[in-house]
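Hey, resending since the last one bounced:
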Amino acid sequence: MLYEHQSDKKDNDIDDDACYAELYDNELLGTNIEKLRTAFRICFGILDKIGNAIALLFDLQLKTNKGKVRPSYFHTFWELENEDRRQKFEAYDNEGLIGLYSIACDLNHKLEGELSFYKQWRNALEHSFVFVYENEKPEDIETSLAYYEEPVFISESEFVESAEHVLQLTRSAIFSFVFAVRIKAEREALNNIPDILIQNKFLEQKNILRK
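The structure tokens again:
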């Protein structure tokens, strides 16, 4: 979707059939800008899926008072200010897990992450309204403010750059997730080696030393 937006591959048939309310406030409308919006949102869906997988695999799931599992949002589920969770996290000593936590901190508003505004934009796309404008920020925004609570105004160039950055973060999170799972699996495999194999290896080494 980002590529199609950048390549300006517009679906003229859809745009011709669709009806857009043009308010002449410099807002970008049409299927092409919607591809950019969708690409941005999808990344956060992927990150949340990674968050749920990590919470399940590393026994970090959050639960309600009734013991029901709560959804694990990538940027907030860690809660390492809780001493028990921090000790469990540190006990894994997993580089992939540390990489994921670092990305999550950057997106966490409560932890004053430097990229937390990306998550705020995503929430505005889902629950409020985001105006993407082409050149200059619309001056007459009173009407918009009357209908939407705290709408976000973003220039197209800034939104494109941010979408590319979020894609890079998501790619890094996928790599870190793979490494975290691999490290965990390798350690568990070593721990599950039957004692007889270890004993045989020890006897082989002992015989070599004797020779």
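The longest strand covers residues 130-133.

Sorry for the duplicate.
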